[in-house]
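Structure ticket #2291
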Amino acid sequence: MIGLAVDPDVDRLALVDETGHPIGEDYTLAFAVRSVLDGSAEPPRPPSLRAARSRRQPFHQSCRRGCRPECGARFVRAAVGEANVARAIRDEGAVIGGEGNGGVILPALHIGRDAPVGVALILHLLARSGQAVSRLVAGQPQYRIVKAKGQRGKDLAPVYAKLTARFSDAAADTRDGLRLAWKDRWVHIRPSGTEPIVRFIAEAPTAEASRTTGVGLPRTHGIARLLRMCGIVGYVGPRQAAGLLLEGLRRLEYRGYDSSGIAVVNGAGLTVMKQAGKLSALEKQLEGAMPKGSLGIGHTRWATHGAPTTPNAHPHTDQTGRIALIHNGIIENSGAIRRALEQRGHTFKSETDTEVLAHLVGRVLQRQHRRSA
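Resolution: structure written out below.
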């Protein structure tokens, strides 16, 4: 028994195993490849297989294991997109190819994604192997795929250069954005072709993940760090916080940023110091005026809401100046919240959504304080 799901134009295929468990589209191409390589006659030359370059480890592994050793398949990557994969299949003379979104391309029929072709190949594999879908999945390497997206900057080349230098142990490929690959994992950063955003896709064998800007990301090989352009650091303890915060921000500079700042709490209240530009500009501002206190937060900002100016730098404070806040990510409804708070007398000093959040938190805490008084 097998469940089959296709998209409206019937060019992509996802699978459901015999227990009703959806295994998604990740294994569609992998199983189609096995069907072709395991069942084909002896080819006149080692066959080529093509895939969109950000796509999945199961497909790559199917080219290296689970097929007849004598087939000698060669795995080749193409840029993301059906047209790119189809062109590469034609140029390479590949026997099969496709994308990790469930799109199977069998050039013996036609060079285009075709879900019914994928169905036929996978049914052939099930009949020949005598195995259920769940057994086929269990026999494949297991990986965890995570995805994220962020607003796109003007020029990604400096970001790619810093990431390549930071992860020098990875094989770097810049044909389509930046793909960093290790032996059993990879991360791909590329600008969207249809939206003003950058897409991030990472894959690793571990299911353990960290929570970063709302997306679970593998800790392995620092993949999580690739997807955080802003830097956040905090300190609470017996030592003076300001110097430690600056040191923490210095260690986060490789991520890229356009402003920085710190906030320190002491008996006299809250001190916020921030500056546009490099961290050295903030350090110069703090010379001889390092705020005292053993509790603080620091931030390096990559501008999303508002220009890279000192007023837009983090931390931001609420209406009373008693709460300081830093954050990564985008608050989608910040404009509506800003207008509602302005109608209630709030005055903003920046263009950022983070300041809106600081004011909202401050207002909620004030209301709770009045209720409990």
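Closing remark: The chain has eleven helices and 20 strands.
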